[in-house]
Amino acid sequence: MKKFILISVSTVLLILIVFRVVIINQKYPDVIEQSYTTREKVPYKTFELTVLDYYLLDKETLNTLFNEEIRVLGEYQCMIVDLHIKNIDAKEQVLNVYTFILETGAAKNGINLNAFYALNGEKATLSPQISANETIVLKLPFHFTEKNFTKSKWIEFSQRDFSLVLNLYPKKLIINL
Questions:
Q1: How many whole angstroms separate alpha carbon 163 and alpha carbon 165?
Q2: What is the DSSP secondary structure assignment for residue 44, as one 8-state letter?
Q3: What is the pLDDT of residues 100-155, one digit of tens each?
Q4: For residue 106, what is the DSSP state?
Q5: First-residue to last-residue Cα distance in the chain
């Protein structure tokens, strides 16, 4: 009798779980990925974004910007993305660039705040207010440490494919670098 009750309860629970999973999958569809390339104009909210350039910082600049981090965490790499931003709206708008992520394979990271200020000036902000039809260019620094990669992957770091991720859901909007 106990075995029958246990099997019955388990079966009902399994049916309820499957039913809930189906409902959630219908409510939240799969991600649609939309990708762009460097120098291509990307419509994003009320803005037009363009990656003008991207490059790894040289060792001397790295040692200046990340001296303490390098001492504590070991070898560092920092990818800089020069992002051209144009407000295409008729009103002043705010763009939160702090939500942008740089990814390479399974490794992902956000903007390094100290390097952002060092490269863009102390008055720069990760949420710039941009007037109608105004354009600005920001240098977005993303750092990676060797501890996040295998030795062979770290040696080949500069040859890796990178993507600037602007949005994750419902549409994954990326710029392939």
A1: 6
A2: E
A3: 999 998 889 999 888 899 899 888 999 999 999 999 999 999 988 888 888 888 88
A4: T
A5: 64
If you search the block for the tokens 């120098």, which residue do you land on?
39
pTM of the model: 0.80
The residue ranges of DSSP E strands in 88-160, in sequence order, are 93-94, 101-104, 107-109, 129-130, 135-145
CA 24 to chain centre: 26
The residue with tokens 């079966």 is: 11
Contact 62, 70 (CB under 8 A): yes
Beta bridge mates, 173: 34, 167
Phi, psi angle pair for 7, to nearest 5°: -65, -40
Strands (E), 113-167: 129-130, 135-145, 163-167
Are the C-beta atoms of residues 62 and 115 closer than 8 Å to each other? no
* Residues 43, 129: Cα–Cα separation, whole Å: 17
Q: Tell me the two tokens of residue 73.
A: 């965490």
